[in-house]
Amino acid sequence: MLMRLFGISEIFLIKKQAEDILQQTIKELSAYKYALDESAIVAITDQRGIIKQVNENFCRISKYSEEELIGQDHRIINSAYHDKAFIRNLWVTIAAGGIWKGEIKNKAKDGSYYWVDTTIVPFFNENGKPYQYVAIRSDITDRKLIQEKVVESELFIKTITNNLPALIAYWNADLYCLFANQPYMEWFDKQPHEMLGINKRDLLYRKEFERHEMHLRDVLQGIPQSFERAFYKGDGVKIYTHTQYLPDVQDNVVKGFYSLIYDVTEIKQAEVNRENAEKLGIRAHEERNTILESIDDAFFAVDKNWIVTYWNNTAEKVLQTPKSKILNRNLWEVFADSVDSESYLKYHQAVETNQAVHFEDYYQPIDKWYEISAYPADAGLSVYFKDVTDRKISEMRLKELNESLQKHAKELAISNAELEQFAYVASHDLQEPLRMVTSFLTQLEKKYSEVIDDKGRQYIHFAVDGAKRMRQIILDLLDFSRVGRTEDDLEEVNTNKLVNEILALYRKQIEEVNASFVFENLPSLQTYKTPIRQVFQNLISNSLKYHSISRTPVIDIACKETKTLFQFSVKDNGIGIDAEYFEKIFIIFQRLHNKDEYSGTGMGLAIAKKIIENLGGKIWVESVEGEGSTFYFTLLKSNKI
After folding, report:
1. Closest residue by Cα to residue 608 from 493, 499, 502, 480
2. pLDDT digits (tens, 9 = 90+) for 619-634
3. Is 340 in contact with 333 (CB distance < 8 Å)?
4. 86, 327, 347, 474: most buried by Cβ count inside 10 Å?
5. Contact (Cβ atoms closer than 8 angstroms) between residue 37 and residue 136
6. 0.85 exceeded by the pTM?
7. Under 8 Å between Cβ of 566 and 637
8. Is 310 in contact with 301 (CB distance < 8 Å)?
9. 308: which strand partners?
């Protein structure tokens, strides 16, 4: 009896020592995290949410002192921004022993708001119930502000471009459409989902594309293009367009080009009418005046000696020069400040080459931009122009916004790279304390095996098992942080051979459940082998793990090919998934089952999703609970990370 009592006391002493080791490890990990990232914000609460401990960063960002926070309900920093469902989900998750991760908007003591990226981890008592929570946060206020500015900028750009008098689109160097304003999509009778991502070859008829090929080749070499086209619409009406291709050059590399299309039917029709009148010898002065005065564009004509012979009412308004001061006078005497300007050079070019010219010019005296078309003839030169100052200002703003977005994108990329590096380094160094905890507990069990009863061994087993699971979580986090940083080269990957290699790894599990696999004629991919292997391995492993005990597992792996991508599917007849969780299962650390039912950390599908999206594809699931699941993912035929 005395030995029995002594054994129990020894057990509690061992348990207390193990807890002390764990607490010391937590402190060391915290100190290490602070050394890596001085912005870490840490708080510990009890199971009711009462604050027990905070670090200096928590006080700094909340503007409360440590004395003001200790003993207070965590709602002291509640901003009332999040709805009840959001808060309920948080508490249900951690109260059930799960790890919750998300972004929270908090309120500081002075009434200001700040955003934090938060991970809340429960700690369990000897009954397996959470008795306190550790919340580790990082300040993401700047990133959230940038995201808000990006949304505002995109809305501003969309509003501007949809109201410009031009059809505007942006094409990348591979001729895929990345942006199109509403008038552009209406012109080609396309919806947004049809327009974005379409190749210019597929947008235009073959012969029409061949007419554009020379201009496309030149603009992708950095040479701006300007040309006119005439064609008939479906109702038989002849339409004239003036098209500009403007290269997007970044760091001396052409990333793509802007396409601007203007409807110049009225101008061309007026010119055609004038030319027809000249050919037929009909030069009815009043009729010509009616036409030229009715068009929206400014117009003037000069003879071979640059004497102005016609100046319409719109030209008076646009150039702020009345007819009385310009008619029958030399153009360059009236506009002496424009000699050697872009207009001066282009007008002379048109006359000398007998070729029409189209260009834009800025007239500084009245601070205006003009879009100009000049057509040479035997009698002299006819010039059509209109005020495009508003459009040019919008284009300059658009360029500034684009540069701003690129700057913000670079900042976000740098921030993401730093976070990935932190996860990579921390995941390596976190494993050593866990190995120490596991080793000490194992040594304790060996040394005191004679005095430790079954309950004590069970406690030690729980602690060792928890440490092992934490190590697996760290390894999975390391895999997650590595996604997108492969050192592999692009190579041809035979997916039939790849699947057979994976099945060889799982031979024991396959034999235990008598599973059968169906697949054939899977394609060869030009891609990165290691990440693709990991995706297939995770999906096949899940199909084996979540099989139904009432039927023999059958897993069908197939692929459908389209013009630009491959769509793979992994179909099983397992336990299935409720539709409510179709999105949740791809979130890091999300599990639908107790660890005692099915092993794992909830990282596999999150890693698969990150890999597929990094390769330009997407992944999703279709499932009926109790009948089975089918996981789909797409891969571009040519992948680059």
Report:
1. 480
2. 999 999 889 999 999 9
3. no
4. 347
5. no
6. no
7. yes
8. yes
9. 302
